[in-house]
Amino acid sequence: MRPVSVWQWSLWGLLLCLLCSSCLGSPSPSTAPEKRAGSQGLRFRLAGFPRKPFEGRVEIQRAGEWGTICDDDFTLQAAHVLCRELGFTEATGWTHSAKYGPGTGRIWLDNLSCSGTERSVTECASRGWGNSDCTHDEDAGVICKDERLPGFSDSNVIEVEHHLQVEEVRIRPAVGRGRRPLPVTEGLVEVRLPDGWSQVCDKGWSAHNSHVVCGMLGFPSEKRVNVAFYRLLAQRQQHSFGLHGVACVGTEAHLSLCSLEFYRANDTTRCPGGGPAVVSCVPSPLYAASSGQKKQQSKPQGEARVRLKGGAHPGEGRVEVLKAGTWGTVCDRKWDLQAASVVCRELGFGSAREALSGARMGQGMGAIHLSEVRCSGQEPSLWKCPHRNITAEDCSHSQDAGVRCNLPYTGVETKIRLSGGRSRHEGRVEVQTGGPGSLRWGLICGDDWGTLEAMVACRQLGLGYANHGLQETWYWDSGNITEVVMSGVHCTGTELSLDQCAHHGTHVACKRTGSHFTAGVICSETASDLLLHSALVQETAYIEDRPLHMLYCAAEENCLASSARSANWPYGHRRLLRFSSQIHNLGRADFRPKAGRHSWVWHECHGHYHSMDIFTHYDILTPNGTKVAEGHKASFCLEDTECQEDVSKRYECANFGEQGITVGCWDLYRHDIDCQWIDITDVKPGNYILQVVINPNFEVAESDFTNNAMKCNCKYDGHRIWVHNCHIGDAFSEEANRRFERYPGQTSNQII
Fold first, then answer.
1. Low complexity bias located where (predicted)?
2. CA-to-CA distance for 542 and 548, rounded, in angstroms?
């Protein structure tokens, strides 16, 4: 029998394969390499914008139809499996809520559950192929490590876009390079392509294109530019054009979402008769100061109706809107980049980098004002977008929407650094001072350095919040930097850099000398956020005349007015305004006392430890702010009294246990325990303001200190007290707060 050649066997095999139904759906051997085992006829691709080649929305082709994966129960383990299917070694992260844009077609998988070791996604548990209750607003994405599997055959992986992509955009100043202050607001538009930075031909360049570019670079708007000047300048310079056609609508959050036309590698004539595209962006007042452009800014018109809360970095946070004088949150249903970009530009930032859902920036409290916001991207305010007003049953605070906005590059992070720490998040603070030619690094005096100053330092470093602000840094090596170049630093906590805080300037005055008495920080990406349940204070307030013989322990802990010292003990009584306080932690980190258990103070009289000497301040104020009675509450026991349904208690004081308040839990101080009162024995009848402030000395870092104060109107006739209109300090608009402080009857402080 004559031997058959390998080539002939291949032809017979190919013919057999084409006739066999089991081969249907597989790529043709003549056009693609053999597919890996385990993927079982599936094909995978990364899709969406903006993205890099190793990240995107995951799409699967099954039975000839492309579809997506729902983010319900999606985990990093599932991302690992999918990244291997895509030819990468592993996943570094995953995204939810259609970060790369919503897909189309089927949603193939829902409730995907993988251990991470599976060879194929088909080995993972799920609801079954095509069985899903999700929408494309819940499409999952992956971020893979930019490292390919050795010998990977990628016939089952398809890139959804084959043309070039724009990963980054920048403005390059055409004149005065290196001397112009940051941020750079005007110059040539340059895009980063796979082979480097290139210019864009200005033929057909429109204001819509400029609007998109400025938004990507952190600027809310653009202005006209002197094109003739730049055309004249371009004749003396050489340019490398990579794009010759850009057509944006103006609502895109990224240039890659516009229609783009790229030059081919063999194009010899590029941008004939044209020049490089130029933009001039208008910074918000927050960033204009550093670029000397304050005069270009219009005055703010009225009070802001949108704000961000709970973000670790500038330009990010939970979206809150003002309605009828009260702040509330936005439900994340149909929340997308267009709506997020409207918020960002309204606040003076650029377009949105991310539209966040699922209370990624912490849960709000109180009203939820808006749902199903649908913006075109051209609206001047979120309130101009079509939306639906909702009831309490429609949405919960676990669905609060958030944003991350594009910010201008200011370079403030290059003027500060940490040294001596065990990680990049901690260390002795060093700042750069001096002018060109005389720059030097130095330390900050530790005198009066506290949490607010540390918060600004961590923000400038780009490291989020401050866990601790340290006045002494004995255990961190100072290296060769020993000179103290800044002292008297005093911040409000909202500044973007330490330069914006009050300080002694060039005159350095430090009470304690030596590099070990200098400022240090420990930073964190998350922080707690305490909030008092104001309605409970209003519901539980009452007056009690308590005999002195029952107040010895309270007097020992300074819970009575100073006049109690001269009282005829044990006879007589003190008049107390009592109420319950329920303190919630709505942040993204547990609230823990600053001091460890080794330094807690034991109080024999009450039989408990104090982990914080002053946890809350209680004050009675006149309408003009004069304090007429005060009290304070030590942290007798910080613990989780109750928690939300899906949260477990972590802290319990019994048996010298750990103290704290878990995220999603609250600590309840009942009205009938010692020191849960204000001694009003000496207060005359009249109209007053009851004020409660949590964490008043900023001993423990929080993501937001503006919501730590609660105020109530109260009317006292000498026998009874009425407490009403209780609210968190930042829950009302400025105008509503002014009305609160002058409500009818408060002009006269005497009851007739």
1. 290-299
2. 18
C-alpha gyration radius of the chain: 31
CA distance 82 to 47: 14
| Amino acid letter for position 505 | G
Element (H, E) at 728: strand 721-728
The predicted-structure confidence for 200-246, as pLDDT tens digits, reads as follows: 998 889 999 999 999 999 999 999 988 888 887 877 777 788 888 89
Exposed (0-12), middle (13-18) or buried (19+): which is 705, by Cβ within 10 Å? buried
Give the span between the Cα atoms of 573 and 16, in whole angstroms. 102
Q: Per DSSP, what are the bridge partners of residue 608? A: 603
Name the strand (E) or helix (H) holding 737.
helix 734-741
d(CA 170, CA 730): 38
Structural domains in the chain plus CATH codes: 43-144 (3.10.250.10), 168-175+182-282 (3.10.250.10), 306-406 (3.10.250.10), 412-524 (3.10.250.10), 530-742 (no CATH)
Q: What is the residue-wise DSSP string for 140-163? A: -EEEE-S-BPTT--GGGB--S--S
Cis peptide before 183 (omega within 30 of 0): yes
What stretch of H or E contains 679?
Answer: strand 677-679
* Cβ contact 661:527 at 8 Å: no
Check whether 435 has a pLDDT greater than 90: no
Give strand pairing partners of 444: 486
Closest-CA residue to 347 (of 416, 404, 292): 404
Region class of 511: left (phi > 0), else alpha (psi between -120 and 50), else beta:
alpha
CA-nearest of 661, 595, 620, 586 to 749 is 620
Burial class (CB in 10 A: 0-12, 13-18, 19+), 260: buried
User: Amino acid identity of 237?
Assistant: Q
Q: What is the helix (H) or strand (E) element at residue 553, kind and residue range?
A: helix 552-556
Query: What DSSP letter does each residue of 375-395 carry, written as one string?
Result: --S--SSGGGS--B---TTT-
Phi/psi at 158 (5° precision): -130, 130
| pTM, rounded to two decimals | 0.73
First to last CA, the chain: 125
Strand spans (E) along 525-626:
530-532, 542-547, 573-578, 581-585, 601-603, 608-610, 616-621
CA dist list (Å): 333 to 336, 355, 372, 509: 9, 11, 5, 54
Quote the distance between the C-alpha of residue 536 and its chain's center: 29
**Phi, psi (degrees; rounded to nearest 5) at 508:** -95, 125
C-alpha span between 446 and 107 (Å, rounded)? 57
pLDDT at 38: 41
- Which structure tokens are listed for 447? 């005198």
Distance CA 228, CA 67 (A): 49
Whether the ω angle into residue 150 lies within 30 degrees of 0, i.e. cis, is no
